[in-house]
Here is the input.
Amino acid sequence: MRPEEVTVILGVIGSDCHAVGNAILERFFRQKGFVIVNLGVMVSQDEFIDAAIETQADAILVSSLYGHAEIDCEGFRDRCIERGLEDIVLYIGGNLVIGKNDVHEVKERFLKMGFDRVFAAPDNQLTDQDELLVGDIQDRRTKRAKVG
Amino acid sequence: MSHRSRHLCVDIGSTMTKAALWEIEGNRLTLDQTAELPTWQEDISHSCIELYHSMKGKDASIHLSSSAHGGLKMVSIGIVPSFTEQASRQVVLSSGGKLIDSFSYRLTESDLKRIEAKNPDIILFAGGTDGGNTEYVRHNAEILARAHTEAIIIYAGNRDMIEEVRTHFSEKGSLLVCQNILPNLDRLQLDEARLLIRKVFLERIIEGKGLTRACELLGVPAVPTPASMYDLLRHLAPVAGDMGIIDIGGATTDCYSSVAEPILSDYRQTPVWYHGIPEPCLARSVEGDLGLRYSSVTAAEQAIGSNRVSPELRDGLLRYSRTVSKDAHTRDMDLSYDRIITETCCSCALTRHAGFLKRDLREPQGAYRQYGRSLLGLGLLILTGGVFQNGEISLDTAHLEGSSADERITLLSKTYEPLYDRQRLLPLAAGLFQGQDELMPGIADQVMQYLV
Here is the structure.
């Protein structure tokens, strides 16, 4: 499976209007060949899901930089399930909490919320996320084919 | 010698059929003659033909529009309400159609029965960006293919699904296909769908509306009246700047606007981020629950609910609205109640038509989200409809102010100038611009001299 066959939704969640990181993410994934739908900043949960449904996206990559990710993402996986996207790949990255926290603890918290991968600062550098994404989506498609 | 042409514009309404004879000499527009007759319900071509015979200008070019027999009844289908369903509704409204129902996500069996019962002329079937959703489109095609309906179905969705959708309708022969109206989430592509709807109306629907005789005698096709008004707006916009038209009828209030920049980048130095599908420069919305007669009760209740009516008038207003909603031709007209209802129809229709800003109270120094179109630059508002004809009703524009609720800011100008179409000429002037690709702002500008 190639990146050109993968549609990804990008956006910054909640009331967060930090736009620069979002632009960098878009450029990174576009250069790797993905089909990108970038919703920009101040995106609600439903807006992510609306876009994913309309474009039949494989993954939603949520960014959050102002420290309120937990409250903004509360119930997100459940909302995806409720709206028919039960097995969509979900990533989250950015400055996910305010103040100093143990990065592993933060990661665990967001994994428990239903995200497939968590890139909490300082572990949010852009490295091999494109390969991880392709791998995760491939796994999901294989599982779906087996069930269907 | 300057070029001289004459134009006979006829508009067939549900109650009245009206005609106007215009002359264009060089760049000058004059109104030569007007006439009207009641529309015959049994044969809507009748009054049109009578008027034609009674007027001067047999050498004139003829332009015909109609909103009789419920106009062009359409159903819209999309997937996500804020994406393809909304785009589909926009196509219907901007084509001059009457939106009788709208569906999102997966059609159910009871949705199917509802479509069959409402008997639309056209079903606009959209969904999925290009390369996007296939699952819902497949499901909806299967359901629609089983519909017992004479409706023409236009598929305007995900291009990847065109062939598959066609296979479901191969026996029906009534499926037409056009460009995806939302090929990606950042772009609306409505023109091809609109043109196809217009073509279908002209070729297939006119007969069922009783317009064939008129079209044959006059030698011209007819267009839905709101589509004609939309054309007028397109020609007026370059000379009038940001403007709106409100058309108040007995049953509905139509609102049209033309805005150069519907999407803001900031509001009072605070950044604004736009959400949703792109807003086009021209738009039409129809409020089916706001009108002067049939739909007056909602308007009356709204007026009372927003404290526009002093306590001693409230009961009387409600009684009046209930009376006129059942009997549009009652003799007991009350001008002061009509004024209140008219003002409410206008302000509600405008508020609903305009977009709004929302700010998250958790981030007071942050940005705004914008939904819908900004009418902050609206300089001119034309008011038309039978209620303005006798010259006795004018509106206090302070009462027309859009209201803001909660943490929303309605994007509506507070300083527009109202102009009244006292002779109910707009639908007749609209005929001058029917199907004209090349803009005629000089002529459109002169139409305004007939407004007060």
Remarks:
- Strands of chain A lie at 7-12, 35-38, 59-64, 89-94, 117-120.
